[in-house]
Design a protein that fits this description.
- The structure is a single chain.
- It is globular and about 45 Å long.
- Helix 6 links the parallel strand 6 and strand 7.
- It is built from nine helices and seven strands.
- The chain is 47% helix and 15% strand.
- Helix 3 runs parallel beside helix 4.
- The protein has a single domain, classed as 3-Layer(aba) Sandwich (Rossmann fold).
- The model has no long low-confidence stretch (mean pLDDT 88).
- Strands 3-2-4-1-5-6-7 form a seven-stranded parallel sheet, with helices on both faces.
């Protein structure tokens, strides 16, 4: 596999985009893949994470911050890596739209709460609009920071049941080990690989990688 671009996208902040991006990037890097993480979020969380990783002397993936020229720059960088992960801003702006315009796959994290599920519909609408111009763009919703909330899970299931958008079978629990790993500048599969959190993140990474293997990496602007 080579040159794939995955946009971690949401129109709402606080859904765990940066944590998920860092966790996947650290895991795949630890397996020997050439990984690039692109920080489009004005908060710069991924860049802070990379700085902590360097301070702690850890071997991590490449991380770059970017504010513009996404459509021109990211595809060129992606050609030099196996997987490029884009941490999108938590609002519908030009950077999020540009990320979807170059991505081969959009992964949409959503915590199982009603406000988050309501916001999910808006980003799925934007993805569907993008797929009208780029039918090769694939997408999936993943429940992140999962808790046992039956009603909220039902809302997420209903919103995710749209043409062109899959529902990831792996749910990432609301577990302290994930946050602790990111705070240490790494990912949970490296930090505590034998934990439940580590197992969940590995399963998500394996599932997403299998999804990418069925995609032709085009990342057309």
């Amino acid at each position: 596999m080579s040159g794939y671009i995955v946009a971690i996208a949401s129109e709402k902040g606080g859904v765990g985009k940066s944590t998920l991006t860092a966790s996947l990037a650290a895991h795949w890097h630890s397996t020997g893949l050439r990984i690039l993480a692109v920080d489009l979020d004005p908060q710069g969380t991924l860049q802070d994470w990379a700085a902590v990783s360097e301070q702690n002397g850890l071997d991590g993936p490449s991380v770059v911050g970017m504010a513009e020229n996404v459509r021109r720059t990211v595809p060129n960088l992606a050609d030099q890596h196996d997987i490029t992960l884009i941490d999108c801003p938590g609002r519908m702006d030009t950077r999020l739209v540009s990320a979807l315009a170059v991505a081969d796959y959009a992964l949409v994290p959503v915590p199982p709460g009603a406000p988050d599920a309501w916001a999910l519909g808006r980003v799925l609408t934007k993805i569907e609009e993008m797929q009208m111009h780029r039918p090769e763009l694939r997408a999936a919703v993943v429940v992140n920071r999962a808790i046992r909330t039956r009603v909220a899970h039902t809302i997420v299931d209903q919103l995710a049941d749209v043409e062109g958008v899959s529902h990831c079978p792996v749910r990432i629990g609301n577990r302290a080990a994930v946050a602790e790993a990111v705070a240490a500048g790494t990912g949970v599969t490296v930090y505590d690989g034998g934990s439940i959190a580590g197992s969940e993140m590995r399963r998500l990474a394996d599932w997403l990688r299998s999804e990418l293997e069925g995609v032709e990496a085009t990342h057309a602007a």
